[in-house]
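Q: Could you fold this chain for me?
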Amino acid sequence: MASATEAQPVPGEQNDQYDVKGFWALIVTMFQGAFNDNAYRWVLFYYLARRFADPELGRATEQTSTLLMAFGLLFFAVPFLVFPGLAGALADRYSKRTITIATKCWEVGVMLVGLLAFYTDNVWFMGLMFFMMNTQSAFFSPAKYGILPEMLPESRLSWGNGVLQMGTFVAIILGTAVAGPLMQMNVNIYLISLFLISCSVLGLIASQFVTPVPAASPGRSVSVNPWSGLGVYFKTFWRDHLLFLTLVGGGFFWFLGALAQSNVAVLGESVLGLTETQISILSVSLALGIGLGSLAAGYLSRKKIEPGLVPIGVTGMAVCGILLGFPLHSVAILGLLMFAFGSSGGFFHVPLAATLQHRSPKEMKGGMMATFNIITCLGIVVAAVALPALGPDGVDIGARNIFVVCAALTLLTGVYLCISYPIFLLRTALWVMSNTIYRVDARGRVHIPERDGALIVANHTSFVDVLILTASIDRPIRFILSQEIFEVPWMRPFAKLMRAIPVSPEAKPKDVNRALHDAADAIN
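A: Sure. Below is the predicted structure, expressed as structure tokens.
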């Protein structure tokens, strides 16, 4: 067992201080919002599934369930596509805490009118309130994710994202879990609505204690055009290759999650004939898996952003998707597979979310989050279209085989990400090594700037030093490497992968100067 630790602590360790009460107030506020969103969504699904049930079957047909879930996905995604520029501009123009409180007030109002929608028993009125609830979420989302890097130091950003994702999916779990049994027990719909109103009021109270943060860009004008300024954000994503990959990965994650969760409802309601409680159990398993997987990913990132977890998540989702395609009729087995599928999704998503928050320009974080939401919601819209296209009204491949399609698409996306940014695979290998063969204790990481150039000088040289340094820091490092080592056949591919700069003391002065010039350019 080798060790790679420093003998003495380095003065000026990373600052892990943050406003504990303000951070957890944000988590509670977010938790309540996600709970209400999902409880209302599933109550509405079960309510309408009963209303349009087939009299002979005594339940909704697969076609009806598929269309209800598809419309639900569209009503969820459209607000994020209609108002991204406006939501992002407001989150940058004003304090994100102010936006948080304002959207909570909005939510209380929507829940109150939602009670009236149930009273009128008008389907389109209910759909409108569901749309307004999701519109509130569209304005809250840039503030929710953009405030994290303003509240937390970088060393806690992956952890904070893990807690946020865990809280989000625990809230989804509870919202989903509560809806099924309440509807199965035939609890009065007005009592359910009053319960959701009470939860919204509690969320509004919690929002008052969120950490006050200054406006990121107080002089910015807010255009009435909801898509104003989006071109700037898309250009920022395009110029930064890693940010662009977070955009691709995030869009795919939400496409896959929406398709998988909706397909669970179709499989349970119309294919297996499960009760509302059993369907809730399967949906809860998926959400619980994502939540616990996200929390684990935040912890296993070891106080840094760890892209090496992405290939692990891709592999897990692909394997579970294939297994879900087998004709397993046990609810327990299906629930276990859904949990593993979700856990792998947490490993996939947390490093991408942390990278997005960390690398986005400080004065543009709200707008970058809103732009990111556009792509994620396009993914959800694609899922809403894909579900009926693959279902009874389309090619009719069967609900089980939709999970196999998910597995195939996951593998394709994973291959694309790793080819586009091979460091993903290298970081995976280093993460495994630093958690098994080596025990790495990284100290003084605060001395490395977050964005500008820095020169790292090792106190001795070996192959292992390259691996240890790379595994200890989440910023990419370019190493100066001896030309003789660079030419070793098995070493050359890895050196090129890490964009090492070869130099030889026996080379001509012109070649040495060229190598040093390349190194200076890399630092700059």
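A (continued): The radius of gyration is 25 Å.
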